[in-house]
Design goal:
The chain is mainly beta. 10% of the residues lie in helices and 28% in strands. It has helices at residues 15-20, 141-146, 148-153, and strands at 45-53, 64-68, 84-88, 95-101, 106-107, 113-114, 117-123, 131-137, 161-162, 164-165, 168-170, 173-174. The strands form three sheets. Strands 1, 4, 10, 11 and 12 form a five-stranded mixed sheet that branches. Strands 3-2-7-8-9 form a five-stranded mixed sheet. Strands 5-6 form a two-stranded antiparallel ribbon. It is globular.
Amino acid sequence: MSRLKESASQTAGPYVHIGCVPSFAGLGGEDLGSEMLSGAVEGERIDIEGHVFDGDGVALTDAMLEIWQADSVGGFDNPDFPGWGRQPTDGESGLFRFKTIRPGRLEWPGGGLQAPHIAFWIVARGINLGLHTRMYFGDEAGANVEDPVLALVGTRRAGLVAPREGDAYRFDIHLQGENETVFFDV
């Protein structure tokens, strides 16, 4: 029996921005996922900002990030909060920024609770398949100690914990190198 070979993966290229964040490509309009907050959503409003760095420590100016998260009570069925957002990095500075709410804790399938966290998906030039990681909150030390996913990461957990800097949580993502972010195979 003959088998067909799998096609090679392609990098995200410039078309991901045209299709997913047309304003970044200069096509105007509102990008799907750019606004997560409505007047009715309950919870502490927060900003998350950072950069995506390549292996040389240079901030990428053409990355796109998506986040998924629970609402402020750890649920996903809130009609006032989509729990999903999408942002490109700034074309000059490489900065990304999400305006969202602080998520609540989630139940772990085997029992117990996960610490509040936000799931990130990153695509950019040179990335054949989107990368998955998580951001935890630096001011949730007790919950972070109990989190089963952070426990698996071990000594590299510091790269997943975002400190609060002023009004925002700072979450830098390092694709390679000494400070490489932990990515999950999901």
